[in-house]
Design a protein that fits this description.
The chain has 4 helices and no strands. By secondary structure, it is mostly helical. The protein has a domain at 25-80.
Length: 86
């Protein structure tokens, strides 16, 4: 199975979610730690091993979380579209 191509509409929806919740990234990480601990652990381990400053790690971890959320949301949207077509 290939990863979904994220549509502009999904991108805008995620951007709106972020703007509505100041704790969006922290909440996303907490959810990911429960639902997909392998990825959460990878992000945490990466931060401990890169030997760079905290801000750089935070920015990279945030981007990893947001990319995960974009792909997750697009997969959900694609599944809903398939349901409506049937």
């Amino acid at each position: 199975m290939a990863l979904p191509k994220v549509s502009i509409n999904v991108g805008h929806a995620i951007q709106a979610e972020i703007l509505q919740n100041n704790e969006y990234v922290a909440d996303l990480y907490d959810r990911l730690a429960v639902e997909n601990p392998c990825i959460a652990n990878l992000l945490a381990a990466f931060g401990q091993n890169i030997g760079r400053d905290d801000k750089e790690y935070t920015n990279m971890a945030t981007m990893g979380l947001l990319i995960y959320r974009l792909l997750e949301s697009q997969a959900e949207a694609d599944a809903m579209e398939c349901e409506f077509e049937n």
